[in-house]
Amino acid sequence: MSESKKNIVAANSVDSLDGQFATLNLGPTHPATHGIFQNVLKMDGERIQSADQTIGYIHRAFEKIAERRPYNQITPLTDRLNYCSSPINNLGWDMTVEKLIGIEVPKRVDYMRVIIMELARISDHLVCNSVIGVDTGALTGFTYMFQERERIYDLFEEVCGARLTTNIGRIGGFERDFSPVFFNKLNEFLSGFPKRFNEFENLLCRNRIFMDRVINVGPISAERAINYGFTGPNLRAAGVDYDVRVMNPYSSYQDFDFQIPVGESGDTYDRFMVRQEEIKQSLSIIKQALANMPEGNFHAEVPEFYLPPKEEVYRSMEALIYHFKIVMGEMNIPEGEVYFAVEGGNGELGYYLISDGGRTPYRLHFRRPCFVYYQAYPEMIKGSLLSDAILTMSSMNVIAGELDA
Amino acid sequence: MDRESIVNILNEHFDQAIENVSEPHGMLTLEVRSDVIKPLIIFLKENESTNFNFLTDITGVHYPHKKEKEFAIVYHLHNWEKNFRLRLKIFKSRENLDVPTISDVFSAANWMERETYDFYGINFVGHPKLIKILNMEDMDYFPMRKEYPMEDATRTDKDDRFFGRDGNEGVKFDNRKKLAGKNE
User: Fold this and answer.
1) Which residues of chain B have a CB within 8 Å of the CB of A341?
2) What is the DSSP letter of A305?
3) What integer pLDDT is reported at residue A20 of this predicted model?
């Protein structure tokens, strides 16, 4: 061997690469990250040494915009937080304003809201879980579950006319009562969905290849998860049974009988399984709500805050005045300070609202679960393979809209 | 756990730290002296009788008309065991926006504090990486402060004067006219 060849061999030997790292730019746009996230990874061979996150690529300043908008015009902004489960955001906002004003909604509204929110939770979890499948190479389940999501969107469309950014519900109740068509479609969904969902579960849950791929990938301990502010399925996967629906029941969740599934190790498999089980629990909640749906009005009797029927506006003076005041954002909102939280698709979605009695909020802050727990990502992927980091991210269900607000 | 017990135990350990106690919409809210905020939060977290194990949220609020209390920093804590939520508030003047970081107590505070810095310019002393998080790093102002109006100040079609009030924030009509004149 000649002298120069020897040198090349030496340079390629493992020893001389010690302490040398490659920098890998994952994102901002990358087909495997499902959203706009940038991670600059420091790679030691195939292992991730550290990650430097950059977020804010789709920051739209909703909190600032909200300071200029009347209360009922803020609902469409909340659509765009976690856009996989917009109705939960919408209804959470409505309930926040109701808490500030002190509106008691009829029991029927509570149950209608529960149905809508649980449908949204199912569609959110379906997307997350089927995407975990895609990232492990199982595209089939994804295509089938997206069809189910379309069915849920059909239901939303029946209630409010929109599918993705729903703007569902109003302050004080719903825009209109559920139609018979909605109930038919819902019953159809409830009878057909579990069977198809089981097929999806059979594809992945006990699938050897899938299990080998996701077990022990991106784990986090319960202690660290709590310290990092985890909530929702990601926290429950680590074994902590914190759920806002049970801790601080809203919208009559105390009437329903359901289990909180928990995992053990907080890894990708547990997150997947917790979401699978939550879908089943949500189905059971919807069935209970349907069976016990109380009679009554679909909105509270608060003419100052709830738009009158359009025919009335043309006929009665009071209705015309209220219509005008509400549309122009001239409702009498009391002064106050409110924190209200709902269990969103990803965890505790909080609204911190300060009103100075003006036509718009003085300050509105969204406590977005994604934003809080995504900061644990570098710690969770440290020392793992790049392909595992992709899986960890999709199983955490980080939604760019919620992350960046 | 109730209002009395928390206020009592805090008064016992921190001399005159609590400046105001209120309970808007059922959440106990304590305004505390800003210099004790960090030891107070550590105490609330680690003392067995309080045990606030979870940091729900940190955010800021701007009150431009209050001179000494221009910026509020609001902490939401949650005791999961007893299911008790607590809100802590500190106030800072514009001249002194230094607040000790609690990112070493709660890892969750890291980004929450960065967000608060990003929007209000609160300087969390001791934070490992206090740079803007949602906005661009080279942005040299703090956009959630009330002196930055939401909409184009030269717009005349959305005039609050027609609704019998001054603008909810930022630019009043006269200023707006002035600004509009400048552009001509």
Assistant:
1) 56
2) T
3) 85
Asked if A354 lies within 8 A of B61 by C-beta distance, the reply is: yes
- What single-letter DSSP state applies at residue B16? T
Structure ipTM? 0.90
The mean pLDDT of chain B is 85
CB neighbour list of residue B175: distance below 8 Å, 6 or more residues apart: B153
pLDDT at position B149: 76
Mean pLDDT of A23-48: 88
Is A47 domain-assigned? Answer: no
| Pairwise CA distance, residues B120 & B91, whole Å | 13
Residue A171 contacts by C-beta under 8 Å, 6 or more apart in sequence?
Answer: A71, A72, A94, A97, A98, A101, A103, A305, A306
Domain that holds residue A389: 62-404
Distance CA A160, CA A158 (A): 6
Residue A368: name the closest of A344, A392, A396 by CA: A344
Q: What class has domain B3-106?
A: alpha beta
Between A50 and A12, the more confident residue is: A50
A46, part of any domain: no
The answer to whether B106 contacts chain A (CB < 8 Å) is yes
What are the tokens at A121? 């939770």
CA distance B18 to chain A (A): 19
Sheet holding B54-62, edge to edge: B18-22, B28-32, B84-92, B71-79, B54-62
Of B134, B136, B163, the CB nearest to A404: B134
CA-nearest residue of chain B to A249?
A: B83
Question: CA-CA distance, A391 to A387, in Å (whole number)?
Answer: 7
Q: Tell me the H-state helices in A161-231.
A: 180-204, 208-214, 222-227
Please state the pTM of the whole predicted model: 0.90
Domain CATH for A217: 1.10.645.10
Average pLDDT over residues A60-82: 91
CB A290 within 8 A of CB A115: yes
Tell me how many domains chain A contains: 1
**Of B29, B62, B134, which has the smallest distance from its Cβ to A59's Cβ?**
B134
Average pLDDT over residues A105-126: 95
pLDDT, average across residues A270-297: 95
Q: Is the pLDDT of residue B150 over 80?
A: no
Instruction: Report pLDDT for A330.
Output: 83
For B89-141, the pLDDT digits (tens) are 999 999 999 999 999 999 999 999 999 999 999 999 999 999 999 999 888 88
**Residue ranges of the domains in chain B?**
3-106, 149-184
List Cβ neighbours of A8 (8 Å cut-off, separation of 6 or more): none
Instruction: Kindly determine whether residue A352 and residue B111, on different chains, have CB atoms separated by under 8 Å.
Output: no
Residue A53 maps to a domain: no
- The 3-state DSSP class for residue A385 equals strand
